[in-house]
């Protein structure tokens, strides 16, 4: 890059201020100097529009004001929304985000962890699926949805309470026999607690239930087969379904339509996440909403908090139920 | 951060290899040294697991291998998909992405441009809406969808051709009187050419058309009023509609449903972008697809290309039409 006017250097500032180069360096790096020197240097910096070299500063302050964010992709609407909110939370605090769409690539995740260990970034917020992630206990890391070490805080929605809330809502809305449909990582993670919460809610409300759980890689068509196997005289054996995500609920709604079942008249459905179609329009379905803006704020606060020993190992944020057209609550006016 | 084993330094490598410090420095920075020295240094680097200090390297190479990406948000599904594809294109080339969701904040956009001018990032790819963006001609910047300077390449879909294709498709599908609905920035940008392309297509095919164009801030309800004003005996004056984005098409489909109009039987509708609901499922509507992966690759290639004078000022990539359920083409099998 060629420039007509080369950027002013620290030497130019020293000449302008009439002080030694070391004095300018001290002021730039926040070290103590006499007030009169400080004023002169600052005036010279302003006059020359001198810009501190970030590499040189990085070497000294050992701070990059940059946080890496690891997420499988930003195409999934939940991930896209989470990325947006974490970006806003970082920008608010004058931090920058290094975004890494990992696409579940274990070596990429590991590469960014190494960067944090080398202080190339100040820390990491990660939604990772890597069971073998090698991470030193003192690495500044906040994990979303998965506990990866005793000293690494994990932030999550209260997935157990969310599953329970879904069961209780279906019971409140008159359901008697319900189903839980799940697909997802077999890795131990917080969202897996939705199942246990749902079972707990069903038991406490006397709801009978069945479950269909697919492992990684099994085709979604298995759910359609499951539903068909529970049809008799054109009616479904269930009057309520809880889907582990809104994304799955979207597919299940299509399957129910293909089976000529009416939602919510014949069968009520609740999802999980709180996804809005097109980013900000209708909810996909009635759903358990994850508090994404609060979750993002908390991740950033925990990561930037200096006192590591005060960091709790797991924080679960409260979820809420929201009507989204697939349950019997038509008098509720949806926000929009 | 405290560590049990301090990271090995360049001195440790020199001691291990039995060479002078300067020799290690040369190897690390890719400068010529004798082969036997090079082999010894590389073996020592490997043995000690020595990691090159990125700040120190940055000072010398003046390269950060980091690109800033400016986008209003990642919540809008088109922006989310674009972010994902640009991230993949950068990672493929071992570059990192600094993501900045600008939320149309002019000062944030300017801040990142300044970072590029100070070599804190190697360059910027930006979808910006800032008419006053101050950007020197030699700043490594690739703009998406908006020309911002003679020496700043702009990458875009062929929006004119896309608008024309929408008109031609509606004509092919039997439409006689169509409407164009648009909302968006009043700023001169590439997507605005969709209108001119559509008009051109209508004229060449003898389609009569009307337009309803809202400016920034006008409520979407104006479109509903427009449609109602064109209803007579429960029928709409149009048999085809082209919406400037899939996001608008999503809303217009709801309006048409509220007016008890059947899509595509009574009225056919084509959108623009190629958005899939939930990131990877059904198309919102029949649509003109932007080639986002190709667009992302091109942006990154242009930005990293050394020879600035060889960079073209504007590149428009070809778009394609895709059936998505809102036009009369039911024999077409949608990809899944």
Kindly describe this structure:
Two copies of one chain form a homodimer. In chain A, strand 6, helix 8 and strand 7 form a beta-alpha-beta unit. Helices cover 38% and strands 19% of the residues of chain A. In chain A, 45% of the residues are buried. In chain A, strands 2-1-3-4-5-13 form a six-stranded parallel β-sheet, with helices on both faces. In chain A, strands 7-6-10-11-12-14 form a six-stranded mixed β-sheet, with helices on both faces. In chain A, strands 8-9 form a two-stranded antiparallel sheet. The two termini of chain A are 49 Å apart. The first copy, chain A, has 336 residues and is α/β, with parallel strands linked by helices. Chains A and B meet through helix 4, helix 5, strand 2 and helix 10 of A and helix 4, helix 5, strand 2 and helix 10 of B. Strand 2 of chain A pairs antiparallel with strand 2 of chain B, so a sheet runs across the interface.
Task: Supply database-style keywords.
homodimer, 336 residues, alpha/beta, six-stranded mixed β-sheet, elongated
Report the uncertain regions of chain A.
54-60, 332-336
The helical percent of chain A reads: 25-40%
Helix-strand category of chain A: alpha/beta
Tell the overall outline of chain A: elongated
H/E element sequence of chain A: HHHHEHEHEEEHEHEHEEEHEEHEE
Q: Kindly, what is the distance between the CA atoms of the first and last residues of chain A, rounded to a whole number of angstroms? A: 49 Å
How are the strands ordered across the major sheet of chain A?
2-1-3-4-5-13
Total number of helices of chain A: 11
Radius of gyration of chain A: 26 Å
Give the oligomeric state: homodimer
Q: What does the main sheet of chain A amount to?
A: 6 strands, parallel
Instruction: Indicate the mean pLDDT of chain A.
Output: 89
The biggest chain-chain interface is:
A-B, 51 and 51 residues
| Strand-residue proportion of chain A | 15-25%
């Amino acid at each position: 890059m060629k420039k007509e006017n080369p950027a002013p250097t620290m030497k130019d500032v020293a000449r302008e201020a009439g002080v030694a180069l070391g004095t300018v360096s001290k002021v730039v790096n926040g070290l103590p100097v006499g007030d009169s020197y400080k004023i002169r240097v600052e005036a010279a910096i302003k006059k020359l529009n001198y810009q501190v070299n970030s590499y040189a500063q990085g070497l000294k302050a050992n701070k990059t004001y940059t946080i890496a964010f690891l997420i499988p992709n930003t195409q999934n609407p939940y991930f896209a929304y989470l990325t947006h909110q974490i970006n806003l939370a970082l920008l608010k605090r004058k931090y920058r985000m290094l975004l890494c769409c990992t696409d579940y690539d274990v070596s990429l995740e590991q590469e960014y962890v190494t960067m944090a260990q080398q202080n190339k970034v100040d820390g990491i917020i990660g939604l990772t699926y890597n069971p073998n992630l090698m991470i030193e206990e003192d690495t500044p890391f906040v994990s979303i949805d998965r506990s990866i070490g005793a000293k690494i805080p994990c932030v999550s929605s209260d997935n157990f309470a969310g599953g329970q809330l879904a069961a209780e809502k279906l019971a409140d809305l008159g359901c008697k026999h319900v189903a839980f449909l799940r697909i997802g990582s077999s890795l131990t993670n917080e969202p897996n607690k939705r199942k246990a919460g749902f079972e707990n809610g069903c038991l406490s409300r006397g709801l009978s239930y069945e479950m269909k759980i697919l492992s990684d890689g099994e085709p979604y068509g298995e759910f359609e087969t499951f539903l068909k196997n529970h049809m008799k005289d054109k009616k479904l054996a269930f009057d309520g379904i809880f889907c582990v995500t809104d994304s799955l609920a979207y597919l299940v709604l299509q399957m129910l339509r293909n089976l000529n079942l009416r939602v919510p008249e014949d069968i009520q459905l609740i999802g999980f996440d709180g996804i809005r179609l097109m980013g900000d329009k209708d909810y996909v379905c009635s759903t358990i909403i994850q508090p994404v803006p609060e979750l993002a704020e908390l991740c950033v606060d925990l990561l930037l908090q200096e006192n590591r020993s005060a960091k709790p190992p797991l924080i679960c944020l409260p979820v809420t139920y929201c009507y989204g057209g697939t349950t019997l609550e038509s008098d509720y006016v949806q926000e929009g």
